[in-house]
TrEMBL record:
Stated family: Belongs to the arsA ATPase family.
Record-given protein name: Arsenic-transporting ATPase
SUPFAM superfamilies assigned: P-loop containing nucleoside triphosphate hydrolases
Organism (species): Halobacillus mangrovi
Molecular functions (GO terms): ATP binding; ATP hydrolysis activity
InterPro entries: ArsA/GET3_ATPase-like, ATPase_ArsA/GET3, P-loop_NTPase
Ranges for domain ArsA/GET3 Anion-transporting ATPase-like: 8-307
Length: 314
C-alpha cells in the first residue's frame, strides 16, 4: 500500500506525546533519502523539529540534509505579519484622519482569541500555494488533535464567512450605485480583496480535498486514550470530507523484549493492538517498534525513517 508515499502534501496529526513530530521528521527523512525534494513544516506552536534535527529551524526554509528542508511557523511573527498585511490592504481606503483609529482597532483585534490561528492559517495557505511547485513532498507536522481539526477545516469555514462578507459588500455597492443614480458599478477595492481571498481559500480547499495529492496520517500509541482520541478525530475530519487513510502505531513493544514486566505489558498492549485493528479497518496501519533508545540523533532518526520507508514504499 502506498497511501502516504504517493501524496505530495501530507498532514500528520495525533495526540500530544505519541511521537507525532518524530514521525513527521522520519517520514520527511524517508522521502528525502528516496531522492524526493522534501519540505517538513511544523505548525505546532510547541516546535520540536529543530531539537529533532539538532539544527536551527525557523520561519524560513532551512536546509537539514540532502533533499530536505525544514520550517517552523512562528505564530507571533505570523500574527504580526498578518496584521501588517491587513493594514496595508486598507491603505488608501480610509480617510487619513481615520487611519490612526483604524490601526488601533486592528491592533486590539489582533489580541483577540483566534487571531494567531488566523495568521497561522494564512501562512499555511501561502506555503501550499507557493512551495508546491518547488518540492516533491510537503509534510506538515501539526499541533495536537483539536488544533489540527480546526486548522484543516478553516478553508471551508472561512469560505462560508467570506461569502457572507461578499454578499453584504455587494448589497452596499448596489445601494451606493442606486444613490448615485448613474447606473455605473462602484469600484470597490475591499470587494476585490475579499474576492481574492475567497479564490485563495477555494484553491487550497480543492488541494486539501484532492486525495490524489493530499493525505492525512495520525500517530497513536497502543493505549486507551490515544485510540479514543484518534477515532474521534477521524470521525470529525470525515464530516468535512477529509479522510484519514493511514495510522502510524508508534512504540509497539518488540517481540525480543523480555522479562516478566514487559511480558505483562505486552499482554495489555496486545488487547489494544487488537482494538486498533477492530476500530480502524479502513486505515493502513504502520507499526513502529519501541526502540531501545530515544530517537535523539540523526543516526537513530535514520533507523526510524528506514523502518517507515520500508512500510510505505511496499
Amino acid at each position: 500500500m502506498k497511501q502516504i508515499y504517493d501524496k505530495k502534501i501530507l498532514f500528520v496529526g495525533g495526540k500530544g506525546g505519541v511521537g507525532k513530530s518524530t514521525s513527521s521528521a522520519a517520514l520527511a527523512v524517508a522521502f528525502a533519502r528516496e531522492g524526493l525534494k522534501t519540505l517538513v513544516v511544523s505548525t505546532d506552536p510547541a516546535h520540536n523539529l529543530g531539537d529533532i534535527f539538532h539544527k536551527k529551524v525557523d520561519h524560513k526554509k532551512n536546509k537539514l540534509e540532502e533533499n530536505l528542508w525544514g520550517m517552523e511557523i512562528d505564530p507571533t511573527l505570523e500574527s504580526k505579519r498578518y496584521i501588517e498585511g491587513v493594514k496595508d490592504n486598507l491603505e488608501g481606503l480610509v480617510k487619513s484622519k481615520m487611519v490612526e483609529e483604524v490601526h488601533r482597532q486592528i491592533d486590539m483585534a489582533s489580541a483577540s482569541p483566534g487571531a494567531d490561528e488566523a495568521a497561522l492559517f494564512d501562512r499555511l495557505i501561502s506555503i501550499i500555494l507557493e512551495e508546491s511547485d518547488h518540492f516533491d513532498k510537503i509534510v506538515f507536522d501539526t499541533a495536537p488533535t483539536g488544533h489540527t481539526i480546526r486548522l484543516l477545516t478553516l478553508p471551508e469555514l472561512m469560505g462560508v464567512w467570506i461569502d457572507g462578507m461578499l454578499e453584504r459588500r455587494k448589497k452596499v455597492n448596489q445601494n451606493y450605485t442606486e444613490l448615485l443614480n448613474d447606473g455605473d458599478p462602484v469600484d470597490d477595492p475591499i470587494y476585490s480583496i475579499l474576492q481574492n481571498r475567497k479564490e485563495k481559500f477555494a484553491t487550497v480547499r480543492k488541494i486539501i480535498l484532492d486525495e490524489e495529492q493530499t493525505g492525512f496520517a495520525f500517530v497513536l500509541i497502543p493505549e486507551r486514550l490515544p485510540i479514543l482520541e484518534t477515532e474521534k478525530a477521524i470521525e470529525q475530519l470525515g464530516q468535512h470530507d477529509l479522510p484519514v487513510r493511514t495510522l502510524i502505531v508508534n512504540k509497539v513493544l518488540p517481540e525480543h523484549a523480555d522479562g516478566a514486566f514487559l511480558e505483562k505489558r505486552r499482554k495489555q498492549e496486545k488487547a489494544y493492538l487488537d482494538e486498533i485493528e477492530k476500530r480502524f479497518p479502513k486505515q493502513q496501519l504502520i507499526r513502529v517498534p519501541l526502540f531501545e533508545e530515544d530517537v535523539s540523533n540523526m543516526e537513530k532518526l535514520g533507523v526510524f525513517a528506514e523502518h517507515v520507508r520500508r512500510k510505505i514504499s511496499v
